């Protein structure tokens, strides 16, 4: 009895050490206990009703017409305008969504994480921003009617509120679900998804206002041309804005997660946020104060910033590849992995070839192959955290568990690309030899 109680206590202490290190527990639990202990379950149960409330609140705010004290009427967004605006805003959001999901191919997040992050930007962030920006605009109004009354909140208030609301979900996921967020590309992906969710709803509002104005104003000769002009401006030419600025905050958070200094962990996210808000402020200022040359100026800004972003993403992919190769080489030297595992898993093209070939061999083979790649990648990142000293002592036990799981999946998954045909060749059936027919023998033979 004493030995059993001591073992149970040791397991509980080991699980607590692993939990403090952001690692899954070693003690096996039933699926329903794992589900109840999952932060993602409770996060989903809390956020989904909150998202519905945010959308309903914005609809009730923007749908009815508003009458001002001077007698002027601001037309609200009707259902037809919202439907048309959502159709045009959908394509920009879909293109950026696929781009960021493709970028997160090294350490894939769960689809539920992607959807919750996108919905945060589309629902919660827009709801917070529209209320705070409206309140700030009322506070900054003056008794004089000047041209700057509408630009002040857009330049001095909106950047800070919008960037803070979009980045809140990143800090929430890092705190509650830090086991899966281990690389810069993962944080950049989540930041981009939150930003394009925000831009998706914001584009619906802008497109809807143009549609309502064009349909109710006789001075607009071609409503379709007016709508498409706004779609090209916000959905194509300046669509990079929100993802780019939110990714600056994400980079500061990524630096903080990989640093051992407490000072860096505090100042890096703050510096990234100030850089994002400053860039957003400059972007809005150019668009608001110089409307004639705004599109041309923003286009040159886009070329420069997108070029820098593309270079950063390329260097990030190369750095991620080198990190995985170095850490897997360490594990190969101690005999935990095979030599070809280092070559195959550290190459993005070979990983894609494995998953594509497994897809043509059935869902079970694809699932085992994807899980094999994910576990080896997690092993590399766990080893990297050990070498940096950013994880607790429970990481050694986790590495042993990952090695055992990898070896159990090796016979069921595709692990080698040499000589692997993406589409398996069809096996030719050998023709069945004819059955010899012998003459029946009579009774007399």
UniProtKB/TrEMBL annotation:
InterPro entries recorded: PrsW
Transmembrane domains' residue ranges: 40-61, 81-102, 114-134, 154-175, 187-207, 240-259, 266-287, 299-319
One GO biological process term: proteolysis
Chain residue ranges for the region called Disordered: 425-445
The entry's keywords: Hydrolase, Membrane, Protease, Transmembrane, Transmembrane helix
GO MF assignments: peptidase activity
Keyword S-adenosyl-L-methionine attributed: no
Keyword set includes Disulfide bond: no
PANTHER family xref list: PROTEASE PRSW
Protein name: Protease PrsW
Species assigned in the record: Arachnia propionica
């Amino acid at each position: 009895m004493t030995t059993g109680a001591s073992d149970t206590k040791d397991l509980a202490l080991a699980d607590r050490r692993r939990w403090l290190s952001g690692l899954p527990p070693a003690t096996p639990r039933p699926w329903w206990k794992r589900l109840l202990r999952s932060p993602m379950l409770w996060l989903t149960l809390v956020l989904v009703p909150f998202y519905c409330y945010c959308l309903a609140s914005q609809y009730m705010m923007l749908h009815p017409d508003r009458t001002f004290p001077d007698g002027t009427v601001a037309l609200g967004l009707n259902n037809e305008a919202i439907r048309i605006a959502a159709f045009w805003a959908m394509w920009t959001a879909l293109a950026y969504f696929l781009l960021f999901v493709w970028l997160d191919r090294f350490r894939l997040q769960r689809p539920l994480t992607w959807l919750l992050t996108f919905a945060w930007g589309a629902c919660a962030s827009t709801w917070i921003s529209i209320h705070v920006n409206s309140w700030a605009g009322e506070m900054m109004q003056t008794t004089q009617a000047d041209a700057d009354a509408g630009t002040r909140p857009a330049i001095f208030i909106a950047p800070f509120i919008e960037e803070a609301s979009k980045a809140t979900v990143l800090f929430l996921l890092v705190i509650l679900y830090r086991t899966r967020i281990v690389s810069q590309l993962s944080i950049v992906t989540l930041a981009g998804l939150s930003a394009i969710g925000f831009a998706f709803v914001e584009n619906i509002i802008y497109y809807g206002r143009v549609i309502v104005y064009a349909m109710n104003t006789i001075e607009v000769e071609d409503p379709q041309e007016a709508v498409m002009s706004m779609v090209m401006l916000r959905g194509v030419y300046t669509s990079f804005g929100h993802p780019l600025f939110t990714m600056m905050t994400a980079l500061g958070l990524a630096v903080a997660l990989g640093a051992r200094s407490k000072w860096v962990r505090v100042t890096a996210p703050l510096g990234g946020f100030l850089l994002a808000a400053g860039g957003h402020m400059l972007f809005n200022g150019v668009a608001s104060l110089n409307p004639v040359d705004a599109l041309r100026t923003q286009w040159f800004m886009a070329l420069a910033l997108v070029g820098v972003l593309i270079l950063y993403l390329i260097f990030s992919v190369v750095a991620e590849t080198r990190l995985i190769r170095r850490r897997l080489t360490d594990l190969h030297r101690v005999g935990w992995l095979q030599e070809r595992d280092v070559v195959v898993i550290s190459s993005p093209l070979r990983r894609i070839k494995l998953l594509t070939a497994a897809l043509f061999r059935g869902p079970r083979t694809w699932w085992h192959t994807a899980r094999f790649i994910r576990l080896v990648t997690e092993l590399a990142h766990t080893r990297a955290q050990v070498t940096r000293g950013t994880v607790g002592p429970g990481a050694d036990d986790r590495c042993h568990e990952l090695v055992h799981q990898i070896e159990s999946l090796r016979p069921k998954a595709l692990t080698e690309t040499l000589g692997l045909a993406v589409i398996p060749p069809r096996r030719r059936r050998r023709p069945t030899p004819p059955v010899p027919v012998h003459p029946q023998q009579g009774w007399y033979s």
